[in-house]
Amino acid sequence: MVSKKAKWIAPVALASVVGLTACGGGTSDSKGASDGAAAADSTAPVTFSLFSADANPNWNNMQDDVGKAITEKTGVTLKAEYAVGGDTQKVSLMIASGEYPDLIMPKGDTSKLVEAGALVDLTDLIDKYAPNIKALYANDMNRLKYSKDDQSIYILPTYTGVGQTSFDAGGGFELQLEVLKELGYPEIRTLDDYEKAIKDYYAKNPTINGQPTIPLSLNADDWHIMIGVTNPAFLATGLPDNGEFYINPETYDAMLHYKRPEEKEYFRWLNKMNSEGLLDKETFTQKRDQYLAKISSGRVLGTINQEWDYSEAENTLKGSSDPTMQNRIYGHFPVTLNKEMKDHSFMDVGFPGGYGIGITTNLDENQRIRAIKFLDWLASDEGQVLNNWGIEGKQYNVENGKRVIPQEIQDRKTNDSAAFTKETGIGQYTLMSPHYGDGVKDKTDNYYTANFPEQIQNAYTQPEKDALKKYNATTWKDLFPKAEELGTSAWGAAYNLPAPSDPSYTVAFQKSQDIVRKRIPEAILATPDKFDAIYDGMIEELNSADIVEMEKIFSQQIKNTVELWGTGK
Fold it and tell me: Which of 337, 217, 334, 198 is nearest to 265 (CA)?
């Protein structure tokens, strides 16, 4: 393995093991443009290769409106490869071959790349060549540092915007607007409320458009099982999202959240829904595209998920020639086990740092400068407005000093989202761009993003507006507990922290995941009389010495993070 302190690896072709397009370590189409310090200030054509551990079905090779404008302004074209189908092996293959793209978005595999010496420390590059990035992260630079022991900056966090204020709910427990309407818009606050609404509507409507009604369907395909099956267990029992862990807010000790007795009762509820024929019998065998097809058919009454995971199916409903299908999209509710518990979706975690984009040692010194300047331009006001709003006069106008989206453009964004995104590129470059979050205004007193209350409300379909009015709300977020009710997190969001590189942690963590992904479906699908034995057996497995030690390692990482950030009590 390459030393962690290695600073340069000669550019190599990238078309072998990792399957990336060969771009020669930031190749330039202009003679001499990659040589010498002058290249750093050049806007001559240059191509950087990029790999993202996330999928992106709407990537259009920068042939969209925003992509073309970025290339025109910076000279940079990206040859990007996005992971397909939750593939988690690419980064390991890169490390094995020593062949890396120029830019990389590795998500949870940052530690592997750091250990391999594949990532450039960006600290000096930011200080010397990236005034926009420096200003953007000014109050959060400590949160960019890799660890207490290695305070290098390897990744620019981009998965969360600086100063982010979420103005709408995209998660929780979802129910069709048609269900709410027919039942007279009942209160949906507890699992009992949610279950009753599904049962009552299902009893009256065993079929929808000639097909069998599906009361509740979940997406459990591969890693989606976390979003659709296991994460709701902590949300429904009053915890914020810290990935696979519960973290004691007083001691910062971490343990797998499944060990909490409250969560056992949540999974018992899913077991009950299954035993009564209310849970889709194909939940644990269907692929994501099958799940989405069911939602787009309009016959799934409820799901428990994040909207980004099923939005393409919902967009099909919105764009249907049958106007009644718009009533088959979902409202979002803060459902918990009982009324004493509060959904913590909107807990203040500050700027969580974490996942983002890095520059690899595939680039030489001058190419690294060119790359950081490219990322710095994306972080500029001009770059952020372009990425979030598109082209002035085409996707938005400025009226009386305010950016506004014409109604016909908004209708396309709402009802034909995938095609609109692919054509315009709006939002396509957010995850690779250091940026401000929703709710932050620029020097013109306009929001950087198009996600602010008035715009969100304008983007709702009429059935959504009608439902929200019945609940005396203007957005779905209005139904959820407010941030000031929920406290703050000293460590941000733990799922965003780099995984400890200790091999004993990695092996034990994977072991825990294998156990959970086997036993949770078993417990849910078992007859009710066997549920306790299966669930308790899972807890015994999760209490093995190596997994307990893994929890201790992660606990120390949380404590080190709090110390590094200076956020402790």
Answer: 337
Q: Which of 2, 16, 50, 144 is nearest to 363 (CA)?
A: 50
Instruction: Read off the amino acid at residue 144.
Output: L
- Say what the pLDDT of residue 35 is: 46
Which residue type sits at 279? L
Q: Is the pLDDT of residue 33 over 60?
A: no
Which domains does the chain possess?
36-164+352-424 (3.40.190.10), 173-345+499-565 (3.40.190.10)
Residue 85 is predicted with a pLDDT of 67
Determine what percent of the chain is predicted with pLDDT higher than 90.
82
Q: Which residue type does 511 have?
A: K
Judged by phi (left if over 0) then psi (alpha if -120 to 50, else beta), residue 64 lies in beta
Mean pLDDT in residue range 240-267: 97
Sign of CA dihedral 192, 197, 200, 203: negative
CA pair distance 318, 273, nearest whole angstrom: 29
- Whether residue 94 contacts residue 459, with contact meaning beta carbons closer than 8 Å, is answered with no
Tell how strand 207-208 and strand 211-212 pair up: antiparallel
Would you call 436 exposed, middle or buried from its count of C-beta atoms within 10 A (0-12, 13-18, 19+)?
A: buried
pLDDT at residue 32 is higher than 80:
no
508 contact partners, CB below 8 Å, separation of at least 6: 546, 547, 549, 550
Summarised one tens digit per residue, pLDDT across range 323-382 is 899 999 999 999 999 999 999 999 999 998 889 999 999 999 999 999 999 999 999 999
The span from the CA of 292 to the CA of 228, in Å, is: 13
Q: Across the chain, what does the average pLDDT equal?
A: 91
